[in-house]
Specification:
- This protein is an alpha/beta fold.
- The chain has 2 domains: about 130 residues, Glucose Oxidase, domain 1, CATH 3.50.30; about 100 residues, Class I glutamine amidotransferase (GATase) domain (Rossmann fold).
- The chain contains 6 helices and 16 strands.
- The protein has a 7-stranded mixed β-barrel. A 5-stranded mixed beta sheet has the order 12-14-13-15-16, with helices on one face.
- Helix 5 links the parallel strand 15 and strand 16.
- Helix 5 packs across helix 6.
- The longest helix is centred in the middle third of the chain and has 11 residues.
- It is globular and about 60 Å long.
Amino acid sequence: MYYLTLEDGSTYTGTGFGAYKPAYGELVFTTSMTGYLESITDPSYRGQILIFAFPTIANYPLNKGKMESGIPHVAGIVTKDSHSEIPVGGFSGELSAFLGSAGVPGIDGIETRGLVSKIREKGSMRAWISQSDGKKDFSKDPFAEDLIFPTVEHSIMNVRKRDFDKKILFINAGSKISVMDNMADLADLTVVPYDMEVPDKRYDAIFISNGPGNPESPHLQRVVKYVRSMIGQTRIYGICLGQQIIALAYGASTYKMHFGHRGSNHAV
């Protein structure tokens, strides 16, 4: 028996799979009907417990070629009906074994749509996945640590698919593989991690990637200051966290959404 315990005191019981260990984090959800592996390996989910609102998850083979990073970044997952042990071969694997090897627990058999409705009404909550329904400590802020650090390569690299005449500075704040790959179809990339100095070169544009955590985190102040210094000097683009960093560079402020909806939007 496994337990999902929320900070409002409510507890849900289910069946454990993946790694048989406890997990703690902010409880968020996605309503996507496909792309479960992409979500599990998306660096933007670092340190979060992800609810899959769609009832059936992993009912097609886990294709590692679809991974958005080298490892899962979720703290845990919550499912209604997880096909976690589909027999597969080749470049695939089964979900339970994949999560287990990465130390990520899952809990199955949860009425996820009802749980999502609760979060939409009451707001995001911290939660535990564990084998005990005893009292839990919810005092730790999941966003206090630098969530980006484990998600990026800490070196500058050049990505060049062919001979482009345009050069883009790609600031990696926890990018998905697909984002970097698609950007490399447009120009030569100089990929610089968020915590390193940017080479003093001329760039035709600056792009700031997606990533996890709070955009107002002290760990991102270097990036915010750099982007602010480049306003008016070149084109600046971003997605997700990158857009929020641009907003901060322009003097705006950010605030946390009431509930943690991630990914595509389908009615629940």
